[in-house]
Amino acid sequence: MKKALITGITGQDGAYLAEFLLKKGYEVHGVKRRSSLFNTDRIDHLYRDPHETGVKFKLYYGDMTDSTNLIRLVQEVQPDEIYNLAAQSHVKVSFETPEYTANADGVGVLRLLEAVRLLGMTEKTRIYQASTSELYGLVQAVPQNETTPFYPRSPYAVAKLYGYWIIVNYREAYNMYACNGILFNHESPIRGETFVTRKITRAASKIALGLQNCLYVGNLLAKRDWGHAKDYIEAMWLMLQQDKAEDFVIATGITTTVRDFIRLSFAELGIEIEFSGKDEREKGVIIDIDQDKVTELGLNADALRFGQTVVKVDPKYFRPTEVELLIGDATKAREKLGWVPKYDLEALVKDMICADLQEVKKDDYLRRGGFKTLNYFE
Ligand code: NDP
Ligand code: GDR
């Protein structure tokens, strides 16, 4: 039975990957951070009481900024495969916490590589590094593939650039099986709520139910190559099953503006949005409502009206330096790994809207029932 160690197991990708590897028969060991509130929502369904026999899913406290912790964990688990998914992964937040981001996302990768090397496990343990399309940053060429030059545009991307190169360096210097997955944006119903797609699908669901008036966003013109996280974690695993460690771009090859993602999300709810105005004054207004869909989905018809402004720009979401255009070329992954995504953008939006609508309805139902109004400080 193979053993996998996943850092960042409580995140979007960590949760999907853990489930995927357990289904493949792996023993899965995950690193979670200590926090004052539970942070394991995404993986609670995988948890089993460790007192039972045959438990194949184990969690440990750890942090990418703590070398001794990582060395001890690698020694204890003796993993065949390590998936390094842990990171301060929010680009905008990295401008506010640049030093921490460099430490966790950049030097953290080195700590993990050193743990494997110092423990003499370079021949046993294969390492996947969560590299990113943010490395391309300021557009040098499109579509972006494994040979496109990097030009990072945020403290996050600069930290990930270090992570990328230290993986390449340890592969060449110590003959380690270490590889970078240069993954373009991938989303899902369990995507963090402050990333733009999830922010949009949650807000659209709330607006459609009359629980929120307006969605405030930043740059509507940014273009991203959005895929589904379920497809992308499979590519991570494939990268560690090859004869030779190599780096791969994982992307759909289709790029969409933030503005169009908003349009598609509202359309999924039967609400047509038209944008007008320029720059900070741009806004999105309802121009049509599909009443059959409103009934079918159980939306709040009274809360929706023609001409209602449901999207506005708030410059506080602008970034000091922006990545305007990402579009990936995953030809190498298709040819060498046989990787082909199953979800297209429409299927992704549908999946996210469907899940958020259900979740928002559930929260509202509980709130109305008085279950969420407890105030511990009264
Ligand atoms: P998430 O933000 O959902 O998850 C990040 C995970 O890292 C969480 O489990 C988080 O813990 C953990 N973490 C953060 N800081 C530390 C630290 N210092 N030590 C240990 N763990 C830490 O990210 P995703 O799942 O979306 O992404 C996974 C990885 O892939 C990240 O490295 C990200 O940068 C990279 N990536 C993501 C892409 C995407 O579109 N999703 C595209 C390309 C790369 P906690 O839950 O406690 O916060
Ligand atoms: P990104 O994802 O920066 O590409 O990083 P995010 O969803 O945060 O932003 C995508 C684009 O949308 C624009 N935008 C907004 N973004 C957020 N978060 N909130 C807003 O209100 C908003 N309005 C417009 C952004 O400016 C940007 O252009 C993600 C992360 O998962 C990284 O960890 C990963 O490496 C990359 O994807 C690939």
**Number of H/I helices:** 11
The ordered string of helix (H) and strand (E) elements is EHEEHEHHEHEEHEEEHEEHEEHEHH
Low-confidence stretches: none
Q: Mean pLDDT score, rounded?
A: 97
Task: Please give a handful of descriptors for the protein shown.
378 residues, alpha/beta, Rossmann fold, UDP-galactose 4-epimerase, domain 1, 17% strand, binds NADPH dihydro-nicotinamide-adenine-dinucleotide phosphate, binds guanosine-5'-diphosphate-rhamnose, lyase, NADP, EC 4.2.1.47
Characterization of the model:
The protein is of the alpha/beta class and 378 residues long. It has 2 domains: 3-183, 3-Layer(aba) Sandwich (Rossmann fold); 196-222 and 257-320 and 344-365, Alpha-Beta Complex (UDP-galactose 4-epimerase, domain 1), CATH 3.90.25.10. 38% of the residues lie in helices and 17% in strands. It contains 11 helices and 15 strands. It has helices at 12-23, 67-77, 91-96, 98-118, 155-174, 196-208, 229-239, 258-268, 291-297, 331-337, 345-368; strands at 3-7, 27-32, 57-61, 81-84, 126-132, 178-183, 186-187, 215-217, 223-224, 227-228, 248-250, 256-257, 271-276, 283-289, 309-313. Strand 5, helix 5 and strand 6 form a beta-alpha-beta unit. Helix 4 runs parallel beside helix 5 and helix 6 packs across helix 11. It starts with a strand and ends in a 10-residue tail after the last helix.
